[in-house]
């Protein structure tokens, strides 16, 4: 339970931890073993898999704990977000920080000064 609720990312603490709180007390040994395997996954990947931003690897698609947490996550997303606000299926929600202005391949001023370069390859 501790590993499920103390993952280090608030989003994962809530998604995985709250599911565990509701379901682990009545889980059978095979489900507990599957959940333990799920907990070994890294937060960035697991969050994207659970939220549908990336397709999970085949072994996780067969993991009953992953399937249960995934379904719960998708239900919560459906219940608490506007459809228009969601990214298209299997698309990342947030691309990440990008200091480069892709229209002219020049960095933003602060990024260029910090990197002391004008090329995105350096």
From TrEMBL:
A cellular-component GO term for this protein: mitochondrion
GO biological process: mitochondrial electron transport, succinate to ubiquinone; mitochondrial respiratory chain complex II assembly; tricarboxylic acid cycle
Keyword annotations from UniProtKB, A to Z: Chaperone, Mitochondrion
Gene3D superfamilies reported for this sequence: Flavinator of succinate dehydrogenase
Region (Disordered): 98-122
InterPro entries found in the cross-reference section: SDH, SDH_sf
A Pfam family annotated for this UniProt entry: Sdh5
Name of protein: FAD assembly factor SdhE
Organism, as annotated: Apatococcus fuscideae
